[in-house]
Every structure is written in structure tokens, then in C-alpha cells.
Design goal:
The chain is an all-alpha fold and about 525 residues long. It is built from 26 helices and no strands. It has one domain. The chain is globular, with a radius of gyration of 23 Å. It is a multi-pass membrane protein. Keywords: Cell membrane, Membrane, Transmembrane, Transmembrane helix.
């Protein structure tokens, strides 16, 4: 009990707990004020196919990069009806939510995940018994260096977009999408969808819904968060450059300022546009806090696990054992990645996995190799923890994705596992290349993206041929209009004249917008890394 109280009373942790409450309230205003309805009204007429609805879900998930719970709630509610009307399977909708929200919040550029991950790196410094001054890098600086090494998260994020744009599915998802397009069943027979917990917030207001109430709070969070991080690091003082400011900043306090502004602008917009009165706005703040209670409980317990491991000397024991075993330091990233995958899968919590492994990985890497390997270890550790979240049926984010997609939970897990395994398999291969001497992230990360694209296409072709289903999933209208030769598919008699695959124009507005927004987002992330260092 003393340890739990101790972690909650830590100034960094206390700020973090308050900021996630503000995050929940801000997200509640986006939903409750009708910002979601305004977004649906604005884009609804442009989204006419399952492919478009999947790409749109991916894009909104990218835009809401500040909290995985918030992103799942807002994105799921914003796109659920569109996905249903365009015959996207509930399984695919849940996959897009799950494999977009967690990866993008892991590397920000502004998110409560960053605050938590930095807090774990601080614990790792303490376990290794060195300070930031002694090694010449802060915990936040080490986090920034680790982002290019978070290979699994980049691949999981990339796969969602690549599969949605190309409509190349495999595994159980191929069957689910064919069922949804051909039979118009977005759920399989006898499926049991999870209930929607948006009742905590209530139905969105239909009084004067405005896009301002969707975009303004998010942009405010981004601007205030980044400026606060710069200011608190002394960036306004003469002679302090951007890199130094981000290195020396108070991450939790900067994100706290941003999250408060996020909530405040959401409230002001709701009142200003008349979508709710002051009493409803006050209730929305409290209800927004409620949506974060599960997250708060998980965070506190994860911190406590990490603190307990520190107190009983787990890090020292593991380091001594590994150092004495003679394991080559170059294989350490692969071992840490596999360990994170296993722990996250069995416990169902990526944050708990980070709390367990970070205090072990940092001192172990520092003792075996030195400071140079720490960004690699931190990046692969965070990625392995997210993989466990994606494939574990007891993961909170996986459950949330099933809830807000209206999917049968086990169906969601079962259809997502092959995709998560593909990204993890490529990550393992890349880490083997690292172990044999290719140690540049600028080589390994692009290579992993290419390998993933090739793997998706090969697996899709193999599975589609094996099941006599289309390689490129057609639209429901194409099947209904007889444009697809379903007899040739079912009989396995694909002739040159039989059209069995869907056809899509890659130069339409939605895929072009998707590619453009993703490029801008990735440039923002890597600019954040570059300026921060």
C-alpha cells in the first residue's frame, strides 16, 4: 500500500493522472457537442465504398494522436455508421481502430503515452543507477531517439493504410470482408457484439453541430502542448535552442497545460455555438473524467508493479544473470522485443509491460553494450508491448476497439492476429539484421516497410487462391451488379475473361488525401524527433 501511495504522490505521476482526466473531458466535448456529427455531415457524401470508410477511419485515428482511448472512442463513433452502410465488416472496423490508435499515440508528437513512457525511462535510469547529467541525455531525449526504432508500431500503422487502400486481405479477415460485401452481413451469424459504453457521455447534441468543435480543441492541444514543452525547457530564454529546450523540459507539466487547454476550448466551443448549456457542459466534464477511470486504474497498478520490481532488486538480478551468460549485446534488442511480446500478451497491458521491462532493459543494455544501444532497446520494447496489446483478448485497448466498432470481441482478436504477426515477423527479421551488423535505423526502417508490403501481397494472393475468393476485394455494388463473376470464384475456374477482383482508382480524393496526410504526419513526427535532439 505504501508503494502505491508513493507512486501516486510522485510529482510527475500526479501531473500525469490529472492530464489524462483533462484528455477524457476534452474528448467528451468533441463527441457530446456534435463535433462528430458535423464531421459526418461534412464527409458523409464523399464516402461511398467500404474502402473509403476504412481509409477515413485510419485518417481520423491518425489525427487524434494524443490518447488511444480518446482516439478509439471518437474515431469509432465518427465512422461506425459510415462503415456499416458501406458494408465494411465489424472485424475490419475494429482492426483499423486498434492498429491505428495505439501506434500513433506511442510516438505522438503530443500524447499522454509520451508522458508515461518518459516516466518509465526515468525509472530505468534509476534502476541503472545513473543520472541524465552523467550520461549526457535526458529521459525525454532518449525517448525521442527511440522513435525510429519503434519498428513494430510503424509497421502496424503502415499495414492498416496499405491494406485499406489496396483492399488485399488474408486470413480470417478475408472471409469476414467477403461475407460483408456479398451477404451484407457486417457481423457473422451468432456473433455477440460488445455493448457501446458511450452511454457514459450521452448522445451527441444535434443543436448547431460545428466542425469548430472537432478541429479547434485538437489543434489547441497540439499547439499549447508543444509550445509549453518548449517554454518549460527554457526555449524563450536567450541562448537556449529548440533541442536544448525539449531536452530539459517538464514533459508531464507541458502535456498538462495542453490537455487543460484541450478541455477548455472544447467547453467554450460547446457553449459558444449553443450546443449545450452550462449545466450540460459541467456534466460533460465529469462524464469525460469517468471514461478515463479504467485507464487510471491500469496506470497506477502498472507504476506500482515497476516500483515493486525496483524495490526487490529485479533489475540487478536480471542484469547480473544476463551479463554472466555471455549473450552478445547485438542480440539484446531481439530478446527484449520477444520478452515484451510475451509479457504483454499474457498480461493484456502494454503499459504494465513497459513498467516491468524498462527498468530491466536500460541497465542491462548499458552494462552489456553502453549508451548507444539504449534507444534501440526502448523502441523495440515499446513496440513489443503494443504487439501484445493487439493480440491479447484481455487487452483494454483491444476490448475498447471491439466495443466502439460493435464487433464480436473474439472475432476481432482472431482476425487481427495474422496482421499483427506479419508486422512482428518482419520486425524480428530486421532485428536479426541488426544483430549481424546493420545498425542504422535509416536503413532498417524503410527496408521493413518494403518487406511488409511484399508480405501482405504474397499472403493475400496465396490465401485468396486457396479459398477461391478475390485477391482485391470488390465493392458490394460491384457484386450486386454482376460485375464480379462469383461462379468463377466459387468453382475455382478463373478464366482470362472472368472478372473476379475489385477495381479501384488510386487517384481519387480519399486515397490521395490519405497519402498526403500520412506524409505530413510522419514529417511532423520526425521533425519533432530532429528538433528535440
Amino acid at each position: 500500500m505504501d508503494w502505491i501511495v508513493e507512486v501516486v504522490r510522485s510529482p510527475f505521476d500526479t501531473k500525469f493522472l490529472v492530464l489524462i482526466m483533462f484528455m477524457g473531458a476534452g474528448a467528451a466535448f468533441i463527441y457530446k457537442s456534435g463535433g462528430i456529427l458535423a464531421l459526418q455531415n461534412w464527409i458523409g457524401g464523399r464516402v461511398n465504398t467500404a474502402r473509403d470508410s476504412q481509409i477515413l477511419t485510419w485518417l481520423i485515428g491518425i489525427f487524434i494522436f494524443f490518447d488511444s482511448y480518446t482516439s478509439t472512442i471518437v474515431t469509432g463513433n465518427a465512422t461506425r455508421e459510415l462503415s456499416e452502410s458501406n458494408h465494411t465488416s465489424r472485424e475490419m472496423h475494429a482492426y483499423v481502430l486498434d492498429s491505428t490508435t495505439s501506434p500513433v499515440t506511442t510516438f505522438g508528437p503530443v500524447s499522454n503515452w509520451i508522458g508515461y513512457q518518459v516516466s518509465m525511462i526515468i525509472v530505468g535510469f534509476e534502476a541503472a543507477r545513473f543520472t541524465a547529467e552523467e550520461v549526457g541525455i535526458t529521459a525525454f531525449g532518449l525517448f525521442l531517439q527511440s522513435i525510429p526504432w519503434n519498428i513494430y508500431c510503424f509497421l502496424a500503422f503502415f499495414m492498416v493504410g496499405f491494406i485499406s487502400i489496396t483492399q488485399r486481405f488474408y486470413g480470417p479477415m478475408l472471409n469476414a470482408e467477403w461475407r460483408s460485401r456479398k451477404e451484407k452481413k457486417t457481423l457473422r451469424d451468432d456473433a455477440t457484439p460488445l455493448s457501446d459504453i458511450s452511454t457514459d457521455i450521452g448522445e451527441p447534441s444535434e443543436r448547431n453541430p460545428s466542425l469548430f468543435n472537432f478541429f479547434a480543441p485538437i489543434l489547441t492541444l497540439l499547439v499549447v502542448g508543444i509550445v509549453s514543452l518548449w517554454w518549460l525547457g527554457g526555449g524563450h530564454q536567450p541562448g537556449v535552442d529548440i533541442a536544448t529546450a525539449f531536452q530539459e523540459t517538464d514533459v508531464a507539466l507541458g502535456l498538462l497545460y495542453g490537455s487543460f487547454a484541450f478541455m477548455a476550448v472544447g467547453m467554450l466551443g460547446s457553449l459558444g455555438f449553443g450546443t449545450m448549456d452550462i449545466e450540460e457542459a459541467s456534466d460533460t466534464v465529469v462524464n469525460g473524467f469517468k471514461t478515463m477511470m479504467i485507464a487510471t486504474a491500469i496506470i497506477i497498478l502498472a507504476w506500482s508493479i515497476g516500483h515493486a520490481a525496483e524495490q526487490v532488486g529485479t533489475a540487478e538480478y536480471i542484469v547480473d544473470m544476463m551479463v554472466g551468460s555471455g549473450i552478445p549485446g547485438s542480440f539484446l534488442p531481439l530478446l527484449i522485443f520477444l520478452a515484451a511480446m510475451f509479457i504483454a500478451f499474457t498480461t493484456g497491458t502494454s503499459w504494465g509491460t513497459m513498467a516491468i521491462l524498462t527498468p530491466l532493459a536500460i541497465p542491462l543494455g548499458y552494462e552489456l553494450v553502453g549508451l548507444s544501444i539504449l534507444p534501440v532497446l526502448v523502441g523495440v520494447l515499446f513496440g513489443g508491448a503494443i504487439w501484445g496489446d493487439h493480440v491479447s483478448p484481455i487487452s483494454d485497448t483491444t476490448v475498447m476497439s471491439s466495443i466502439f466498432a460493435g464487433s464480436d470481441h473474439i472475432d476481432h482478436v482472431r482476425t487481427q492476429i495474422p496482421f499483427a504477426m506479419t508486422a512482428a515477423g518482419v520486425t524480428v527479421l530486421v532485428l536479426l539484421l541488426y544483430a549481424v551488423g546493420i545498425t542504422s535505423a535509416m536503413i532498417l526502417l524503410p527496408l521493413s516497410v518494403v518487406l511488409t508490403a511484399v508480405a501482405v501481397v504474397v499472403l493475400n494472393k496465396f490465401d485468396a487462391r486457396r479459398k477461391n475468393l478475390p485477391e482485391v476485394m470488390p465493392t458490394a455494388d460491384a457484386i450486386d451488379n454482376g460485375e464480379i463473376d462469383t461462379d468463377a470464384l466459387e468453382n475455382g475456374t478463373r478464366s482470362d475473361g472472368a472478372r473476379v477482383n475489385g477495381q479501384y482508382d488510386l487517384l481519387t480524393s480519399i486515397p490521395l488525401a490519405a497519402v498526403g496526410i500520412v506524409i505530413v504526419y510522419l514529417c511532423l513526427v520526425f521533425a519533432f524527433v530532429t528538433f528535440g535532439l
